[in-house]
Amino acid sequence: MTMVDEATHALTPAQARARFRAGVSAPTSGWAAGYTQTNLIAVRRDWAYDVLMFCQRNEQPCPVLDVSEPGDPSTKLAAGADLRSDLPRYRIWENGELRAEVTDATPYWSDDLVAFSIGCSFTFETALAAEGIPLRHVEQGRNVAMYTTTRKCRPAGRLHGPMVVSMRYIPAGRVDDAIRITAEMPAVHGAPVHVGDPGALGISDLGKPDFGEPARPEPGDVPVFWACGVTPQAALMASKPPFAITHAPGHMLITDRRDDEYRVGRQ
Amino acid sequence: MTMVDEATHALTPAQARARFRAGVSAPTSGWAAGYTQTNLIAVRRDWAYDVLMFCQRNEQPCPVLDVSEPGDPSTKLAAGADLRSDLPRYRIWENGELRAEVTDATPYWSDDLVAFSIGCSFTFETALAAEGIPLRHVEQGRNVAMYTTTRKCRPAGRLHGPMVVSMRYIPAGRVDDAIRITAEMPAVHGAPVHVGDPGALGISDLGKPDFGEPARPEPGDVPVFWACGVTPQAALMASKPPFAITHAPGHMLITDRRDDEYRVGRQ
């Protein structure tokens, strides 16, 4: 699969969202370069407090950038966006089971759904690339690799589950830089949660991610793991709320916010 | 009033909390130097979602550092602390009206109260002082001055109100440094919301703060305004939930967390 080409890279966020609204479906890594992408999770109002508390207690995987009023499919992060249709792919969940993957969630929407927009590690990829740190999954035209770990999130009400991480192979000599750069962006997962041995997170095979696609390391690369906004989906699977809509992993909302806005002290 | 002396400055957080539990009541600025202090707001469970949403939507004045389960007076921020008694002074609110100011809130507690611990600008005072920026209110032994502004917070459900700010006089030549230092601490209000003319925030007289005490400027000082954790109290007054307990302005919870923990990229 080829995700990134000159054309999608140069799109404005509104142009990208219009393509997805029209039915295009692709992972969004590399699209509308320089603009922040977000994870989506929408639950019924009677579960919204649990989700918001879960996010507050697990800010590194679940940094909340916006929350809608019940039923409102708009977001302050993207002018004119419709959260029901402007992401390239959605997952529909019932009682913790994945029921459907669709490109338009409008038929599943209801007026008691509360939508959470959660920060995404794609945001800091711009900053990493700007300092010359290679991104193997982008070079190789793949979705980023994500893994469910054995680290438990702090529960909140009825919501509990494991932390999910994204992994990037980083040249050993640039790991310090990658830590420094991402530490400055706490609203989009911040510094890595782990560097090196995948076994420490309970990951047995980097070649078999739970979400996304595996990337090939280059000689001298080290695996570096960041908390991931797919964590709420793992919590849905574990906690089984009656209904939820999420983005499909890697298929994000492209917002109007510049990635730089989430870099502390650099605005 | 003299708030700061060698003895209180050198106390551990647990020792300070024990004094307050025993009935001592004083503003906490300068106590247990180097440890983070937090604002308290506790509301009934049926208002907790509104408060949490309000804080998410107004993160600069209301950065949430911890939320309790309903009825639980403990916090992960301070081992063994009892939120009902370990702050030096509390305010009891009914329908948006201040009903009582007490040194022990235990008689007012109930098992459906959810307690929010919110970041406080005292946290960044350590960082300012460490870089040689003078703190006039500390020098003068006063509580920091706080003002209700004409800036509106983004509403959330039933909760709405104005932003409250704390003000510190800073030597003109150090304002840039103060901005840089506090911008690195977004979990405790971050960079100033305004520098200079108080009228731009609708403040008519710096000598008459709405909370706390006025400080005297030194020649060449400029007023610098930071978003303030008393903002939820202004929202209580405006939004009139049936019941709430808060700290009294300036009379904070002293946590076990080091101020440095809230400095991005410096851990």
From TrEMBL, chains A, B:
Pfam families: D-Glu_cyclase. It comes from the Bacteria. Its EC number is 4.2.1.-. Transmembrane segments: none annotated. It is an enzyme of class 4 (lyase). The keyword Lyase applies. SUPFAM superfamilies: PSTPO5379-like. Gene3D superfamilies: PSTPO5379-like, PSTPO5379-like domain. The keyword Lyase applies. InterPro entries: D-Glu_cyclase, Putative_hydro-lyase, UPF0317. GO terms for molecular function: lyase activity. Keywords: Lyase. NCBIfam families: PRK05463.1. Belongs to the D-glutamate cyclase family. This is Putative hydro-lyase A4R43_19455. The lineage of its organism: Bacteria, Bacillati, Actinomycetota, Actinomycetes, Pseudonocardiales.
